[in-house]
# Entry
Amino acid sequence: MSSEKFENLQEDYNILFDDLKKKIDNRISRCSGEEKKQLIRDVERGLEEAGEMLHDMEAEARPAPGTYRTNMNQKIRNYSKELEKLKRDLKRMSTSAASAELFTGGTYQRDNVDNEITSMKTNQRKTLIQGTESLNRASASVDRSHRIAAETDEIGVGIIEELGGQKEQLIRTRDKVSMKCFVIIKSSMMITKSLSLYCLFTFSA
# Structure
């Protein structure tokens, strides 16, 4: 095993570590939503790749001579500490993002519930107003019906009273005609009787 591979791994690790650190320190905190989630997933994959590089460096350090091996292992331990710190920072970022999303989602849900309640109240108020208007129209219609019925009754009473008056007038007229007829008949009988007596006396003489 040569130290050249270790150095190449070390160089690749440092490049990857710097990139991951920049993403955690600068980019993740400035992103939100799906973009933030995707960036966190990318960093998680990068951390796994960095961990595999450390394992490869450990494998390169094991067969190295004593002094070189000690130096390599010390570097690996330092890298491991830095990598663990990055993992903790990412975990903190992920937790913060999840909490923010939960809060935002909860707020959104509460807003939706509030909007639905407001909409229900508005619909209920409209229904109540429409029902009141319908009731008022029905009441007005009933009042008109009562008024028309009262007017009709009044007209009917007037007609009945008028017919009653006409009936009495007709009865009086009938009585008068009957009386006149009686007088005429009686007069006619008296005239007939007088003529009969006159003729009788005349022919007897």
Summary: Residues 66-204 form the longest helix (139 residues). The chain has three helices and no strands. The mean pLDDT is 80. The CA atoms of residues 16 and 148 lie 96 Å apart.
